[in-house]
Every structure is written in structure tokens, then in C-alpha cells.
Design goal:
Radius of gyration: 16 Å
Number of helices: 7
Largest sheet: 3 strands, antiparallel
Helix content: 25-40%
Structural class: alpha+beta
Number of strands: 7
Shape: globular
Strand order of the largest sheet: 4-6-7
């Protein structure tokens, strides 16, 4: 499915675009005026975590559950935990930051680095997954979690627990009806994304450095 054919949450539609017109995620770093889609920016992930902002659109997340897109292996582990009546918690911390439900549904439909289990992004581009458009397997889910923990040690790492919603998919496009339903009832409290999570990487770095200097 072409990204141009997928309806966007309002906050995603307000994001900066690349040369093709694709919205650029809040945690995607920029270099030489171009977004590095295969990478997750440490500074941006840190800012989103400590300010409780969506990693997709960069606007605030309300108190309560957070969502993320998981690959096939983790989706299977979550399904097994639910079937066994167990509380799920990802034992291996992930660099994938959380976001709003509608933003993660959108990402699952359009983003190969999230929708495809073998195409995970890396932290700042190290050990990046497969190339855009390449597909070796299928499976994953959009998952809501009641509990979120994070830590910073050169990179941002996240742990999630207590599944409140489990929406499995094959390649991601199955989430489209849920996305359409979600964005048909927009949140009137949605705020604009701050400048330091737009396309100015120097602004993001300054914000990140200010947080570290204040530790």
C-alpha cells in the first residue's frame, strides 16, 4: 500500500516531510537537511521519553497506556503470555520508543522499519535492518501497555509491561480499518510539536544536552 493512500492522524500530517512527501518521525534524526529513516536518534528518543511525547508525532501523550509496534517474535511471546494468563514484560530492552495509539497504527501500515519484523531500525543507524521494500517474513502487532520504563546509557532503552490491547497483523495493512476509526474521532487537545522535534537537528541536540547538563 502506498503511503499516499493511507489516512494520517492530524499530528502526523503536520510533521516535516522528506523530498517524496513522506512525514518524518519525531525520533528520526536529520543530517545535511535529509532525514535518516533507518536510524533512531538518541537525543530525540531521550527527549520524547522524559517529556512523555509520542515518538511518531512528537506531541504529548496523556497519562495512561502507551503503544508500540512489535515484530513477529515479540508478538508471539505476548500472545503466549496472554493465553497463559501471565503478565507480559519484555525482558530484552528495546530501542523502539512508544507513542499514541493512532500514530502507531499509522506506522504499522506505512513504515517498513516497524511493520516488518526483520526491518527494525537501529539506534543512530548502527546495525540497521533490511532495506525499504524488502520483505523476508511477516507478522507483528500494535500493542498497548500500561507500564513503561526507560533508561539512558549512551542509547535509550525501553521496557514495557501489562498489555492492555493486543492487535496482531501479518504485514501491517490489516491495521488500516482501526486507523481509519481512530482518526475519525480526533483528540481536540492535541498540541503542536515543539521545534526541537522537527527538522532542526541542532535544536534537538541542544535540548538533549541541556537535560544531561541538568542531571
Amino acid at each position: 500500500m502506498r503511503p499516499a493512500d493511507v489516512p494520517m492522524p492530524a499530528a502526523v500530517a503536520a510533521r516535516p516531510r522528506d523530498d517524496r512527501g513522506y512525514p518524518v518521525l519525531a525520533i528520526t534524526p536529520w543530517a545535511d537537511g535529509q532525514p535518516r529513516f533507518a536510524a533512531t536518534g538518541t537525543a530525540r528518543s531521550y527527549i520524547c521519553a522524559v517529556e512523555r511525547r509520542c515518538s511518531i508525532c512528537g506531541t504529548p501523550m496523556a497519562t495512561g497506556p502507551v503503544w508500540r509496534v512489535v515484530g513477529a517474535a515479540e508478538a508471539a511471546a505476548i500472545a503466549a503470555a496472554i493465553a497463559a494468563g501471565q503478565v507480559y514484560r519484555n525482558e530484552a530492552a528495546t530501542v523502539e520508543a512508544p507513542g499514541h495509539r493512532d500514530c502507531m497504527l499509522y506506522a504499522a501500515v506505512v513504515c517498513p522499519y516497524l511493520a516488518q519484523p526483520t526491518a527494525r531500525r537501529s539506534q543512530d543507524g548502527r546495525h540497521a535492518g533490511m532495506a525499504r521494500g524488502e520483505r523476508k517474513s511477516a507478522g507483528g502487532a500494535v500493542v498497548g501497555f500500561a507500564s513503561l520504563e526507560f533508561r539512558y546509557a549512551d542509547v535509550m532503552m525501553f521496557r514495557f509491561a501489562e498489555v492492555v490491547e493486543f492487535l496482531p497483523h501479518d504485514g501491517g495493512e490489516e491495521q488500516l480499518p482501526r486507523l481509519v476509526s481512530a482518526i475519525s474521532q480526533p483528540d481536540p487537545a492535541t498540541l503542536e510539536c515543539p521545534e526541537y522535534l522537527l527538522s532542526d537537528e541542532e535544536s534537538a541536540t541542544r535540548r538533549f544536552t541541556a537535560y544531561l547538563d541538568g542531571r
